Amino acid sequence: MGAIRTTCAYCGVGCGISAEVRGERAVAISGDRDHPANRGSLCSKGTHLGETVGLEGRLLAPMIGQGEASWDEALDLVAGRMRDCIAEHGPDSVAFYVSGQLLTEDYYAANKLMKGFIGSGNIDTNSRLCMASAVAAHTRAFGEDVVPCSYDDLDAADLVLLVGSNTAWCHPVIWQRLEKTRERRGTRIVVIDPRRTETAEQADLHIPVAPDGDVALFNALLADMKRRGLVDEEYLATHVAVDAGFWDDLSPESGIPDAIFRKLCDLVARHPRTVTLFSQGANQSVCGTDKGNAITNFHLATGRINRIGAGPFSITGQPNAMGGREVGGLANMLACHLGFSEEERAEAAAFWNAPNICTGPGLKAVDMFRAVHAGKIRFLWVMATNPAVSLPDSTFVREALARCPTVVVSDVIADTDTGRLAHVRLPAHAWGEKDGTVTNSERRISRQRALFSPPGQTRADWQIVADVAARMGWGESFAWANAAAVFREYAHMTGLAKARDKVLDLAVLAEMDDAAYADMEPFKWGGERPFAKGYPTASGKARLVAVTAPAEVTDPAFPLRLNTVRYRDQWHTMTRTGLSPALSHHRPEPLLEVHPDDASDLGLVEGGFGRVETAHGNSVYRVSLTKGQRRGEICVPMHWSDAMAGQGRSNRLPSQAVDPVSGQPGYKNGAARVTAIAPEWRAFVVRRDVLAPEGVLYWTRSRVKTGWLYELAGDGTIDLAALLPDGERLEVADTARGMRRIAVRGEDGALIAAAYVTRSGELPSRTWVAEQVGLKEASAAEVLAGRPSTPLPDRGPIVCVCHGVGEKEIALAVHDGAAAVAEVGACTRAGTNCGSCRPAIARLIATFSSLEQEAAQ
Length: 857
Ligand SMILES: Nc1nc2c(c(=O)[nH]1)N[C@H]1C(S)=C(S)[C@@H](COP(=O)(O)OP(=O)(O)OC[C@H]3O[C@@H](n4cnc5c(=O)[nH]c(N)nc54)[C@H](O)[C@@H]3O)O[C@H]1N2
Ligand SMILES: Nc1nc2c(c(=O)[nH]1)N[C@H]1C(S)=C(S)[C@@H](COP(=O)(O)OP(=O)(O)OC[C@H]3O[C@@H](n4cnc5c(=O)[nH]c(N)nc54)[C@H](O)[C@@H]3O)O[C@H]1N2
Ligand code: SF4
Ligand SMILES: [Mo]
Prior knowledge:
Layout: E1 4-7, E2 16-23, E3 26-31, H1 44-47, E4 63-64, E5 67-68, H2 71-89, E6 94-98, H3 104-118, E7 123-125, H4 132-142, H5 151-156, E8 159-163, H6 167-170, H7 172-185, E9 188-192, H8 198-201, E10 205-207, H9 214-227, H10 233-239, E11 240-242, H11 258-270, E12 274-278, H12 280-283, H13 288-301, E13 311-314, H14 321-327, H15 342-352, H16 365-373, E14 379-383, H17 387-390, H18 394-403, E15 406-411, E16 424-427, E17 436-439, E18 444-448, H19 461-474, H20 483-499, H21 514-518, E19 523-524, E20 542-544, E21 560-565, H22 581-584, E22 591-594, H23 596-602, E23 609-613, E24 618-625, E25 633-637, E26 670-677, E27 681-687, E28 698-704, E29 707-714, E30 728-734, E31 739-745, E32 751-758, H24 766-772, H25 780-785, E33 798-800, E34 805-806, H26 807-815, H27 821-828, H28 838-856
Parallel strand pairs: 6-7, 6-14, 8-9, 8-12, 9-10, 11-20, 12-13, 14-15, 15-16, 21-25, 22-24
Antiparallel strand pairs: 1-2, 2-3, 4-5, 4-16, 17-18, 18-19, 21-26, 22-25, 23-24, 23-26, 27-29, 27-32, 28-29, 30-31, 31-32, 33-34
Bound molecules: ligand MGD (2 copies), iron/sulfur cluster (SF4) and molybdenum atom.
GO cellular component, one term: oxidoreductase complex
Cofactor: [4Fe-4S] cluster; Mo-bis(molybdopterin guanine dinucleotide)
Protein name: Nitrate reductase
């Protein structure tokens, strides 16, 4: 079979993939050279998609409680409970919480069912946690949620401002594209982020802005442009309405040191072709909408928009965050960029032939779960998202789910934290089986195509929605034969938006037949310059929105500012990337990153443990000291769930505070305190299967080739043997040091598990031990020693996950004279495949060469 062209499962860059199926659940992945988003490149996550398409952990049959059920039983139960709930408590007692990881077709079906047939606006999406502030800012500034830029603009820009975006980790292929254009034409890159991320390290200028300091910074930047006479008065006069008092209220206080601010202003003044790419450091804030508008204000006022190489570019997170915004998956949008006016609702009702068109907007995510908690919503259907991990104040969210009379979860994985709280679990097609469309950050619609036949009883998400609708008596309106039919209906419906002079318009695709849909090439709606004919507002003008910097928040009980972020090789709640051994190398444990000076004040040590506490909960992390953190600020990852760790779930910590306009949570600037923890023992265990250790201070698991590596720490005694499977046990112990080691062999003589605990000394290298599990020839003596008798060269921590190149090999290459990333690649192969580790290699080169220089002096 030839290669199948599809789209990556992960981020909003929307890279095209060329997939060669190599057998049952086996696939060779490479970048699609013909896809305009990536032209053949893929990052580490896309490259290793093949490691996550197995059936390990998949939900393969409908489940009612812990028991397997038939589809008929499950669907009857779901529809029956929904019908009863609507009859007794009204349509607003039902809610759907959906996701940017659904296909457009899935999203369309769910939105139609809720807003046209159930008759409530209560469908919201995890994009509320992600893009809602950008959506609100677009709507305030442009009149419609439209991103005015394309990736080509990044190639044409002379200056790129990255605001709250760790692009090198979270949108790596865009980062690689930026690096290439920088090489070609000297693009300047500025990173505005409180942390010195790997992206910031590679930038021409890093501005370590204070948390939520962005409004002040962009206002001051615009004030400076005004002073310099760089405001485009003509553009303003023709295309922009200006809020009363806008210029008078624009504060020149940038909030950052003068010298850095001047550097920024000079760069901006010199380079009219400016793109501002912004992401969660902007959106996930209680002033996220204002941040978005501070950015659009700057672009509108300087005329740096609607031109090649210029514009505000909100970059999307999930593969189909944009598709969800189009169809209307947000509670405050009806469908296809329509609002809730009498006429718009009537138009949608007529189009859908809907019996129960909703009367107005529904509840936004955080409010939705509050209503569940309060017993107002009594039926909740969660699709393709894991809110028990990803919503803020997740202890409250779990309480809400536990109280809710009916929780339905559609997922691809059997054991998720949210699934544990569900009454009914419905098995959906996963990436590799899904068939439909997604829209990326630049409005480009691409096909995801099925590679495998669906396993077990899994069904397409849109089909599951249609099946429930049919049982509710609305079968005729949901009787699509295939994904193509759903897509056509959606494309047709965008005609309503077009008739209202909106930019969203897919009418040309409404008549495509199944064959054309099957072969559909990536297609961008809105064209290159979506506002070329003016802005989609009544006056045809955009708007400068007056925004003011928020007051600084301080809380003596919780003096540290808490930031929560992503890691390069993990995706969200780890249900899929957590299954990949290669992707688990980069950061196998959740780290508490802290400035060394704060650490010494707090008694934290590198590799030790720290407990982060807020008014809402607490979590325990491995400590990592880094000067990349500003003093007084700490940072933890968002990824770890209860399924993957005992204590590292970060959303125990944030409050429910949201942006008043967008409803998006302020995940990135919480109030916290930290205490050092010195556990009496530390241990690690390698075994093939999944385990949930109880009664320990700290545990996490990460995927290794032959099973799982568990890191543990605690006080008192540890029953190491209880953590191990049955089999022949060999053991050594040194009670004086509190050291004990056990190796377990299975019936065929192969090593099946090993465990190591210490109360004082060091633990052996995990990498080598993990590789012994499953080997018949593994030597018990060596395993108990924790190392081979003939020492192997120590590669150090793996940096390049594609070629398995370690830090020490890179040090050696630098020692031998390699001075650039490409030279390290030439001698070690590191960074020569997907390139995601290139920023890390660049940093290591800098570190090692300065060490060499010091040594030489
Ligand atoms: N590897 C990986 N890639 C992903 C994802 C993933 O889970 N893993 N998820 C995808 C999704 S859904 C999304 S939404 C994107 C998110 O992509 P990003 O937004 O790049 O990711 P984050 O790490 O959440 O946050 C970005 C940066 O914002 C900074 N920040 C915090 N507070 C502020 C502030 O007040 N001002 C400014 N200017 N910056 C601040 C943080 O320090 C952090 O470095 O990534 C997508 N890509
Ligand atoms: N503290 C903190 N919290 C955050 C963030 C942060 O920066 N800090 N970021 C927020 C952001 S931007 C986002 S986008 C969210 C993401 O948060 P979530 O959406 O909760 O995270 P995922 O792990 O991607 O969850 C997707 C779920 O859907 C399942 N799934 C995958 N594909 C399919 C499919 O095709 N069909 C179905 N039915 N199920 C599928 C997966 O197994 C998984 O259980 O987290 C938010 N939470
Ligand atoms: S940048 Fe990486 S994760 Fe994002 S779409 Fe491309 S390959 Fe997938
Ligand atoms: Mo996101």
